[in-house]
Design goal:
Elements lengths: L4 E14 L2 E17 L12 H23 L7 E8 L5 H8 L2 H11 L6 E6 L6 E7 L10 E5 L9 E9 L11 H13 L2
Parallel strand pairs: 3-4
Antiparallel strand pairs: 1-2, 2-7, 3-5, 3-7, 5-6
Helix pairs in contact: 1-3
Length: about 200
C-alpha cells in the first residue's frame, strides 16, 4: 500500500482567540491527508471496487490515524472527528467514496479514539489546489453543536488526474465560545410548542 502513497500532508491550527475574546481552552484542529495513486484509474468502468477497497483502505486508515494522533497529542485529546476524500479529474467520485465509506476504514479511526458517532464526511472530484474540507462532530454525541467544526486546507499539487486524496480530521475541543445550545434544547422546545398547538 505504501508504494501507492506519493506523500503525506499535515495541517493544523490552534484557535487562541475567537470574536476578539481569548479562548478558555485553546483548541487544535488537525488534518492528515495521503495523496495516492487511484487504483481504478485508466481501467475504464470497474464494476467491482471491493478488491482494491479491501487491499488499500485498512492500511491507509492505520497510517493516517497514527499520524493524526501524534499531531493531536494522543487519542484522549481527540474530541471531534471527520473524514474526506477528493478524486482527481480522471476518476469517479465513487472512487473517492470507496476508500472512506467502508467500516474497514472508519472503524479504525473510531476505535482508536473511542468514538461512537458516525464520521461526518465530504467526497468530491477536484484538481490540484482545490479546497479539502473535513466537517467534524463530537466523537460521542452527534447533537453537541459546540463540536460542529470544519478544518479546511489545500494541497498545491494534488490530487493529480489519476490520484485520490484521503484525509482524516480531528479537533481537541469545540468552538471557543459556543453559545447556540445543542439540538436537544431545540427538540425539547419544539415538543413543548407542539403541546400548545
Amino acid at each position: 500500500m505504501s508504494n501507492r502513497v506519493r506523500k503525506l500532508v499535515r495541517y493544523s491550527e490552534d484557535i487562541l482567540i475567537e470574536g476578539g475574546k481569548e479562548a478558555a481552552k485553546p483548541a487544535r484542529m488537525v488534518a492528515v491527508a495521503a495523496v495516492l495513486q487511484n487504483p481504478w484509474a485508466g481501467r475504464g468502468f470497474v464494476e467491482n471496487l471491493r478488491p482494491e477497497i479491501l487491499a488499500i483502505a485498512p492500511g491507509l486508515a492505520q497510517m493516517l490515524v497514527r499520524e493524526l494522533l501524534e499531531a493531536c497529542g494522543g487519542a484522549d485529546a481527540v474530541e471531534a472527528y471527520g473524514k474526506a476524500a477528493v478524486v482527481g479529474s480522471s476518476g469517479e467520485v465513487e472512487h473517492a467514496s470507496a476508500l472512506i465509506h467502508t467500516l474497514r476504514f472508519g472503524n479504525i479511526f473510531r476505535e482508536a479514539v473511542g468514538g461512537k458517532s458516525y464520521l461526518s464526511f465530504t467526497n468530491k472530484r477536484g484538481g490540484p489546489g482545490c479546497a479539502i474540507a473535513i466537517p467534524m462532530m463530537h466523537k460521542l454525541d452527534e447533537g453537541l453543536r459546540s463540536h460542529y467544526l470544519t478544518v479546511e486546507f489545500t494541497i498545491g499539487d494534488a490530487p493529480g488526474p489519476d490520484e485520490i486524496v484521503v484525509a482524516l480530521g480531528a479537533a481537541t475541543g469545540g468552538r471557543a465560545h459556543a453559545r447556540i445550545g445543542n439540538r436537544y434544547i431545540d427538540m425539547k422546545e419544539m415538543a413543548e410548542e407542539g403541546k400548545g398547538a
